Amino acid sequence: MNLHPIIAGNFMLDGGAMFGVVPKSIWQKTNPADENNMVKIAARCLLVEDGDRLTLIDAGMGNKQSDKFFSYYYRWGEETLESSIKKCGFHPDDITDVFLTHLHFDHCGGAVIKVGENSYDTTFKNANYWSNKAHWEWAIKPNKREVASFLKENILPIEESGQLSFLEKNSNDYLTETELGFQVLFVDGHTEKQMIPLINYKGKKIAFAADLVPTAGHIPLPYIPGYDIRPLTSLKEKDMFLNFCNDNNVFLFFEHDASEELGLVHETERGIRLKETFKIIEL
Ligand SMILES: [Zn+2]
Questions:
Q1: Which domain holds residue 158?
Q2: I want to staple 256 with a disulfide (CB 3.0 to 4.6 A). Which of 19, 132, 214, 249 is the partner?
Q3: Are 227 and 17 in contact (CB under 8 A)?
Q4: Do residues 251 and 204 make contact, with C-beta atoms less than 8 angstroms apart?
């Protein structure tokens, strides 16, 4: 198996929204803000090359909304989803599977392209697109809190293409086995049934932490984004997940950290904290 981090464009988000109830005087030590209170955010996706299977986990925000829409997100850096895939030696048509942790625009937007005024197509025409039924139904009839994150032009064309498949949660175990060659953890704090992949790679375990632990700065328990719809559920889920990572030497893959790819955690007097950071090529 080979793992390729894929930068699908970087952007910025309001630091207060990213860290919820944690005061700026504390979060700015790990995630410094600019004069508009914005912090740097990556859209770091992951390409899993496993035999004949080439699975893309998440797809960044893409580029099909208006200039006005993107002006709120201060995009920076040169990389795009397509340029990063090509840099790894692949073509979008090589992708066999697209696994979407959830359908917020900064995770799935790149998976659908605009091909005309009000007409859309999937970016990866040979791929199965993976979500789950509960999350899909949640996203296509969004509540008023998340309506700005679930954009119908990012979501409905996937179903219309006939490329949509659903994974099903195994209700008895902490992790669900999948046919994709990795396990999945289902969590409900950030949104309904977000999916966190757990990948075995060179004898090590890597969790694609998505919005459960978006940056290395989010490891301390109360550091929960204001975006989360059920913060007390996030707190419980993070506690279990960080203990699981600590007990099993699981590397956290940070989708949104502007500089760090991977981190290992350890137990300290103050709780579980970041121990050391790594790049995938170092494993
Ligand atoms: Zn999200």
A1: 2-282
A2: 214
A3: yes
A4: yes
